[in-house]
Amino acid sequence: MAAAWAQEAGPQKPSFKGLSALYVSYGALQALDMVSTVQARNQGAREVNPIMGGSYGRATATKALLAAASMTAVRLVAKKNRKSAFLTMVARNAATAVVVVSNYRNAQRLSPGLGVCNLVQRRHSRLGYPSQ
Q: Which of 76, 94, 103, 123 is deepest in the core (most CB within 10 A)?
């Protein structure tokens, strides 16, 4: 009986909640990409993407526009095929995460004292907290 109900219900599609979570994580990863790019450029790295070169304001506006266009396109795909939209957002999140990690590695390679622990220690020392 349960098998018949499952067959009648058809294959399960990813929920809109799952897709919404991927939109949020994509937005957060885009912000981390921009922050990590600025950090790496401040440490001496150069931007290899010619579209993102130039001023930080221009790069931020370009990144925001491209991210919004990507999410709009995926929303249109989701109306016809939710599974494709879901997989597209998973792939975009993964690709952006790789870029963010690469940016932070480049920044750390150019400035070995830039690790997260060192940044926290520097901030604490500036605020007058005793070192541990």
A: 103
Mean predicted confidence (pLDDT) in 106-122: 63
Q: Which two tokens stand for residue 34?
A: 């921009």
pLDDT tens, position by position, 33-84 = 999 888 888 888 888 888 887 888 888 899 999 999 999 999 999 999 999 9
Domain that holds residue 62: 15-127
* DSSP secondary structure string for all residues of the chain: -HHHHHHHH-SPPPPHHHHHHHHHHHHHHHHHHHHHHHHHHHTT-----GGG-S-HHHHHHHHHHHHHHHHHHHHHHHHH-HHHHHHHHHHHHHHHHHHHHHHHHHHHHH-GGGSHHHHHHHHHHHHTPPP-
Position 109 scores a pLDDT of 84
The CA dihedral of 56, 58, 60, 63, to the nearest 10 degrees, is -130
Q: Is residue 108 part of a domain?
A: yes
Instruction: Say how far apart CA 50 and CA 69 lie, in whole Å.
Output: 19
Tell me, yes or no, whether 3 lies in a domain. Answer: no
| Residue 114 maps to a domain | yes
